[in-house]
Amino acid sequence: MKYAGKKFEGRSTEVVVIPRQGFSVIFKAQAVLNYDNFEKLCPLPNPPKVMKPGGVTVSNVEDPKYLEAIGKWSGYKTTWMILESLKATPELEWETIDPLKPETWSNWEDELTDGGFSQAEITAIIGIVIDACGLNQTKIDKATKDFLAGQEAELKGLSSLRTGKASTVSGEHANDLG
Predict the structure, then answer these.
(1) Using CA atoms, how far apart are residues 165 and 177, in angstroms rounded to an integer?
(2) Percentage of the chain with pLDDT > 90?
(3) Are strands 49-52 and 56-59 parallel, antiparallel or unpaired?
(4) What confidence tens digit (pLDDT) does each residue in 52-78 have?
(5) pLDDT digits (tens, 9 = 90+) for 88-126
(6) Which of 136, 141, 163, 177 is 20 to 30 Å from the Cα of 44, by its Cα?
(7) What's the structural domain count of the chain?
């Protein structure tokens, strides 16, 4: 794919540097491009079917067990995205997380806390994952403002072409832009 003649290579990557005594811990997060591996490990739960009067079978999306399963699945998906995104940090080694066992994935925050990271630092790490995997509103607002400023400057350059007579006396040339 190209956009404005440029070919994009690589994924969006964000970095946070957390200072420590004598060195810095650098976390990198990359955009997660697909969830195929997650879906193989954790297929989307299906709601139970119920028979309605008249013999019509429908999905019961309000079933408490289904809602619990969807909540658990959603938590796994979010945690998997965090872990997958942080794979861009090759120095990072999880000690209690097995990539094939979803029930271990939630250990990531405890491992960071046990490693001496404060809640503010963990929030910064989550922030780079969110930024790498999608756009936050602040980035969208800035990009929009920059784009519109460029459009305004371009229009000011054209404004001299837009001045002219709106109507002319017969025989004079009309300004097509006026």
Answers:
(1) 9
(2) 58
(3) antiparallel
(4) 888 888 888 999 999 999 999 999 999
(5) 999 999 999 999 999 999 999 999 999 999 999 999 999
(6) 136
(7) 1
Sign of CA dihedral 86, 88, 91, 97: positive
Global pTM value: 0.73
Tell me whether residue 6 is in a domain: no
- The residue type at 39: E
Range of the domain at 139: 13-43+77-159
Residue-wise DSSP of 82-135:
HHHHGGG-TT---SS--TT-HHHHTHHHHHHHHTT--HHHHHHHHHHHHHHHS-
In Å, how far are 124, 134, 163 from 157, measured between CA atoms? 42, 35, 12
